[in-house]
Amino acid sequence: MDVPLTADLVTVSACRGVGLRTYSGEGLVGFAWAFLHAGARHVIAGLWDVNDQSTVALMDVLYRELAAGKPPAAALRTARLSLIESPGNLRKPFYWAPFQLYTVTP
Predict the structure, then answer these.
(1) What per-residue confidence (pLDDT) applies to 20?
(2) Digitized pLDDT (tens) for each residue of the chain, 106 residues in all
(3) How far, in whole angstroms, is CA 85 from its chain's centroid?
(4) Cα torsion angle, 38, 42, 48, 53, sign
(5) What secondary structure letter does DSSP report for 15?
(6) Which of 70, 86, 90, 105 is least crowded, fewest Cβ atoms below 10 Å from its Cβ?
C-alpha cells in the first residue's frame, strides 16, 4: 500500500482477495483496497473462497478479452457469461460471482 503503483488493472485471483475485515467508511479491507490506495485504477478480486477449476476458466476468458482490447468491466462480464453458459456446475453463481471489479474514479 505504501509503494506507489501505476497499474491500470490488478487481478487477485485468490480466495478472499477483497478482504475479511470491514471498517467504517472503508468497507472490506484487503488486497483490493491496498492496491487501489497504492494507485491501481482497477482491481478484480474474489469475495469468498474460489474454486480452482472455475477460476482458471474465468481468468482464461478474462485475459483473452483484455488482450483483445476490452476494458476490465466488459472483459469480466464476458468471462462470467462464459461460465454461466457452460454446462455443469460452473454455471452456478458460487463459481463465477466471487470476482468483482473495484474501480477508482479518475
Answers:
(1) 55
(2) 677 888 999 988 765 555 555 545 455 557 777 888 899 999 998 888 878 889 899 999 999 999 999 999 999 999 999 999 998 899 999 989 889 898 987 6
(3) 19
(4) negative
(5) T
(6) 105
Residues 92 and 86: their CA atoms lie apart, in Å, by: 10
**CB atoms < 10 A from the CB of 75, how many?**
22
> Is residue 32 within 8 Å of 18, Cβ to Cβ?
yes
pTM of the model: 0.82
Length, in residues, of the chain: 106
Q: What CA–CA distance (Å, rounded) separates 46 from 54?
A: 12
Q: How many CB atoms lie within 10 A of CB 15?
A: 14
Describe the chain by its helix, strand, coil percentages, rounded to 5. 40, 20, 40
- Strands 42-46, 9-12: pairing is parallel
**By the 8 A CB rule, do 71 and 36 touch?**
no
User: What are residue 98's phi and psi, to 5 degrees?
Assistant: -65, -25
